[in-house]
Amino acid sequence: MKKLLTVCLMLFTLAGYSQSTVSTSEDSLVALETDSLAKVPAGQPTPNGQDSALVEKTLVKEVKWPTLDTLLHTESDTTYILNFWATWCRPCVAELPHFEELNKNYARHKVRIILVSMDFVRDIEDRVIPFVKRMKLDNTVWLLNEPDANSWIEKVDTSWSGALPATLILNPSRTKRAFFEKALDYDTLVRELSYFTEY
Hints:
The structure is a single chain. With 199 residues, the chain is α/β, with parallel strands linked by helices. It has one domain: Glutaredoxin (3-Layer(aba) Sandwich), CATH 3.40.30.10. It has helices at 2-35, 52-57, 65-72, 90-105, 124-135, 153-156, 186-197, and strands at 61-63, 79-85, 111-117, 140-144, 166-171, 176-180. Strand 3, helix 5 and strand 4 (140-144) form a beta-alpha-beta unit. It is globular and about 40 Å long.
C-alpha cells in the first residue's frame, strides 16, 4: 500500500512539474512584457517597495537577441506585433500613435504589442526613456542591444533589408506571420491584425 501511495504521489508531482514547465516560457514573456510596463510616478511608493527611480528605468527594457528569439519561437496562441523603430527615424515616430491606439482597442484580445527600439544602448537614459515619457507610450518598449544586426535581421524575416520602420505580426501557435518593411497606418494595422484574430 505504501508503494502504491508513493507511486501516486510521484506521478502527481511529475504531472504538476510538467504543467509548470510548459507555461514557464510564456510566463517569462509575460513577466518581461509587464516588467517593462511598470510605470510609477516619481516619489510614489512601488508595490514591492522598490526605488521608483529603478522602476522608471523599466520604461525601456534592454534585451539581447535570445529574448526576441524566445518570443519568435514560443508556442503561445497570443498574436504578437513587433515594431522595430528608432527615435531618430521620422516615419517610425509618425506611426507610433497607431500602435498606441491599437493597444487600447485590442486590450481585451490576445494581442501584445512590443516596440523594439533600435537606438544605441548608450542613448537609453538620455534619449530613449525621455522619448517614451514624452510620447506617453503605454506599449511594452524594448531596446535591442545587439550591435551586429547582420547576425539576427534575417532571423526576424528573410526579406528584411534592415530598413526602419519594420513590423512583424505573428501568432506562433497558428504559424502565421506577416512582415512589413514600411510605415503602417492604423487601418492597415487593423486589417492585417484581423487575419490573425478572426477565426
